[in-house]
Specification:
This protein is mainly α and 324 residues long. It has a single domain, classed as Na+/H+ antiporter like fold, CATH 1.20.1530. The longest helix is centred in the middle third of the chain and has 30 residues. The radius of gyration is 19 Å and the shape is globular. The termini are far apart.
Length: 324
């Protein structure tokens, strides 16, 4: 009972994530404008783990092996690793010809698909949860290996990319929490059963990732507050390519889903491709690119606000979108 208030508070933060991220951005900038916030760098790794680990615990990896829908999986992979990354690369060339770190941030958004929001919105709209989970896990594993390659070959000419360092950081950020999550889930389920796990553990641990996200956004904004305040027009300018990326992602996946798949599978496709794993993108930005990573992280932090809001709006009108 004494922890119920904590979970209620975390649930409140999760339900109001858009507004809480905006608050974190504002307070981060205010804090960083008054205090030298470089000391917050020591929080990056624990916040990274806090963002990602709770999401990994709730991934049921065995789902990948059950009832495969090959066409749906291949379509999601083509969208996630061909259409969207190259569209983001195109946007970077158009909008950020002289701002390579903004272009790099946009590429990271495009290269790291899915996340807990994919599963949440798919369930909320009565889409195929098994399909959404399969897309999430396969995309996440592929992203761990493809992201360093894409960054090196597409961005290496304008940004110094240490291929091995980026690969190492991504593997640590994705696979360490994933392996720990699989092990913890296995032992807890073995002890209390699948249903008890979902009710007593699964639903509760997931909300802790919100603290990691808000803490990371606050820290990034605080550490880069002087730059943001000196370049406020540039920061606002970043909003347009973010909006265009999500508009393209939702638009293309919706058209493909309506033409080729049932409504349930189409919803899994839309949320499994249009929503990105921004927590991992943010973690990679601030850990793999040194001081420059904070510039990369700015556009990813702004994307959080858009993704949550656009996902919610799409979910609200999904029945109308997929009317026959």
């Amino acid at each position: 009972m004494k922890f119920s208030g904590v979970f209620q508070f975390l649930g409140f933060l999760q339900k109001n994530l858009v507004y809480m991220i905006v608050v974190s951005i504002i307070f981060g900038i205010i804090f960083g404008s008054r205090v030298d916030a470089k000391f917050l760098q020591i929080l990056i790794f624990p916040l990274t783990f806090l963002m990602i680990f709770p999401q990994m615990v709730n991934l049921k990896v065995s789902t990948v092996l059950t009832k495969p829908n090959t066409a749906l999986k291949l379509t999601s992979l083509v969208l996630n690793f061909i259409f969207l990354p190259f569209f983001a690369f195109f946007l970077g060339k158009i909008f950020f010809p002289d701002s390579p770190f903004d272009a790099l941030g946009l590429m990271l958004i495009a290269l790291l698909p899915t996340g807990s929001m994919t599963i949440a919105y798919t369930g909320m709209t009565k889409g195929s949860l098994p399909a959404a989970i399969r897309i999430s896990i396969l995309s996440l594993i592929l992203a761990a290996f493809l992201t360093p390659l894409y960054l090196y070959f597409l961005m290496g000419a304008v940004v110094s990319i240490d291929f091995l360092l980026v690969m190492k950081k991504i593997l640590i950020i994705i696979f360490l929490p994933l392996i720990l999550g699989i092990l913890i889930r296995y032992f807890v389920v073995k002890k209390v059963g699948e249903e008890n796990y979902k009710e007593q553990f699964g639903k509760k641990i997931g909300v802790f990732s919100v603290l990691g996200v808000l803490g990371m956004v606050f820290s990034v904004m605080a550490m880069k507050a002087p730059f943001i305040l000196e370049n406020i027009k540039h920061t606002l300018y970043n909003i347009l390519p973010i909006f265009l990326f999500y508009f393209f992602a939702f638009g293309v996946s919706t058209v493909v889903g309506k033409i080729f798949f049932t409504k349930k599978d189409a919803l899994a496709l839309v949320f499994g491709t249009s929503l990105r794993h921004l927590a991992i993108a943010l973690a990679v930005a601030v850990t793999a690119f040194g001081e420059d990573g904070l510039y990369v992280a700015l556009i990813i932090s702004l994307a959080f606000v858009f993704q949550v809001k656009i996902g919610a709006i799409y979910a609200k009108f999904s029945d109308r979108i997929f009317e026959k």
